[in-house]
Amino acid sequence: MAEIELVYWKDKIGGETERLVTEAFSYGFTVGPHGEWEMVIAKEDKEVRKNELVNIKIGEIEVPPKSIVLPCPIMRHALGIVSSLTTAGKPMPVEEKRVLDEVIFHPLYDGKVCKGELLCVVNIFYTAIERILARGAAEKWLRERYRY
User: Fold this and answer.
1) Any bridge partners for residue 2, and if so which?
2) Is 59 helix (H, G, I), strand (E, B) or coil?
């Protein structure tokens, strides 16, 4: 268990930041044999310049509880690559449903990304959290409950 400080965008990407100090556990996970492909579609027009990262609003992508999102490196926009999918607000644990509504886009060429264009495809894989998490959480609970 480690005490960490999370820094995140409070209301919008590029807006005001907030900090949250919390305890976190390192743990492993197993990726199941079932996954889904989701298309990441631009929700706005955006001028892009080579090597200048830009935020682009996308159609909402729901990430189910206990799942992870990985980019599919085969399908991408001609002008660049999606570096990260994100949303503003307090970070949520993987055990909860999350909604992604923005990407950080890394343009490789100058041009214009238009609303409705495919930016990339992502893989959503379902996972099982390994027992180390449960053991660490149980140990923390016992220490707090039985303090002497």
Assistant:
1) 24
2) strand
Which residue has tokens 């509880």?
Answer: 65
pLDDT of residue 50: 97
Helix (H) / strand (E) containing 20: strand 17-24
Strands 111-113 and 67-76: unpaired
User: Computed from CA positions of residues 5, 6, 10, 12, in that sequence, does the dihedral angle turn out positive or negative?
Assistant: positive
| pLDDT tens per residue, range 93-109 | 888 999 999 999 999 99
Question: Which tens digits make up the pLDDT trace of 26-76?
Answer: 777 888 888 899 999 999 999 999 999 999 999 999 999 999 998 888 888
| In 64-142, beta strands by DSSP E | 67-76, 80-86, 98-107, 111-113, 118-129
Taking the C-alpha atoms of residue 58 and residue 132, their distance in angstroms, rounded to an integer, is: 35
**pLDDT for res 99:** 95
Q: How far is CA 135 from CA 40, 55, 102, in A?
A: 37, 39, 35
Question: Tokens 């992604």 identify what position?
Answer: 100
